[in-house]
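In the laboratory, one determines a bound structure by crystallizing the protein with its ligand and collecting diffraction data. In a computational setting the workflow is compressed into a single prediction: the sequence and the ligand go in, and a structural description comes out. We illustrate the idea with inosinic acid.
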Amino acid sequence: MAFYYNEPSHTFSEYLLVPGYSSAQCIPANASLRTPITKFRKGEEPAISMNIPLVSAIMQSVSDDNMAIALAKEGGISFIYGSQTVEQQAEMVTRVKNYKAGFVSSDSNVRPDQTLADILVLKSETGHATVAVTDDGTANGKLVGIVTSRDYRVSRMDPATRISEFMTPIENVIYAKEGISLKEANNVIWDHKLNALPILDNNQRLVAFVFRKDYDSHKENPLELLDTSKRYIVGAGINTKDFAERVPALVEAGADILCIDSSEGFSEWQKLTIEFIRKNYGDSVKVGAGNVVDREGFRFLAEAGADFVKIGIGGGSICITRETKGIGRGQATAVIEVAKARDEYFEETGIYVPICSDGGIVHDYHITLALAMGADFCMLGRYFSRFDESPTNKVMVNGNYMKEYWGEGSARARNWQRYDMGGASKLSFEEGVDSYVPYAGSLHDNLSITLSKVRSTMCNCGALSIPEFQSNARLTLVSSVSIVEGGAHDVVLKDNNITPVK
Ligand code: IMP
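The predicted complex, in structure-token form:
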């Protein structure tokens, strides 16, 4: 006879947190959201921790290099989508690793034997006044001089004048060496009243410019997530089919952490993928696995060697897996059970395997609930897709700005590797939809509000860190009637069309 669970499985919206005692020190400014993302032994530090408990979903409509840079600036990690060619994905990872806030690759470059006329053409094309003069005319050639609009007078000079005759030669150019921080570069700019500071390597080759006007928009972010070489940390999705080609390319490109992207992860395919990584790279390559929704699934992946385990089947906003296949579990119940399994495993082995609640975050407080229930961090798709930084088009629908958002299991994404149970080479039916989500503005502005809500609720519950919150939180299931009580009720909401009566 089939096995039946006695209790129904629940979603986040069916729970509330019961506040606890808060001391005078328990204020949001003192609350830390730092959390591990890779497994670690008792008493040791995890190889990678995040400064906020959020990662962006492994999806075409969510996580490209642009999103990865924006989220790393805030202290989280993006997993760049794997449903593209190995080369394209590795290229995105490379772009994140090469990115340095405020350090701009020169887009206006000439050779000294070119003419004033060439400078004028370049200026009309780029709109930029600072031109690098390099020996080979490239952005990374040996810097021999600089031309700005102060170096020439169009009305008084022959357009055929050679650049070498009027440029500011390198002997008179103030420059800095590669390795300087943005703050130090900015000090040089201010001390010498410069508009642009060239950054050179040890062979006098041009690496980048730092521009005076860019500094304010690139002020260092206190929570940004950097590797030991001060590059942004980035993740990447892999699948259980082409890992032998994809993993080496992503590792070579500098991906800090990988994650097997699958709609259902309690399978031998995941074990084989992790085995490949351990055999070729030992523990130096970090890899998460999933998704699972129960104790057995967690143990299987933890024992297979996963660095973190991802939870969730069927709860994603664009997901129709439950409707099409009849599999899944309420996300809250799944997180609670897997968190228990993680703690049991830690007791037994001394190894802490972080867990991620993936999908189904509708309100900001759902993140807080997931953490209280034991998740170490959450993966979100819909949430991030609404921002300027997501890769999709902003469109107008019925007078409102929207962003496109589609599932990896939709015909649009064609990510058959995510759903394949072996053999198939195309999607035989869809498990996701193509949709719109309301446009919400910048990631930074939205995230600030979301995270202040999380910190504030943690303080209501007397916790100043995620581990403390996980062990002290008290949760209650709510009845359907009390859900109604939780919204505005028995009042008529004001709108602007009401005329006051004197
Ligand atoms: P959301 O944050 O509720 O939008 O859920 C995002 C999560 O849904 C992703 O991280 C995936 O785990 C999952 N997902 C992505 N695409 C699909 C799909 O097409 N079908 C089912 N689940 C999906």
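Residues 331-349 form the longest helix (19 residues). Keep in mind that any predicted model is a hypothesis to be tested, not a measurement.
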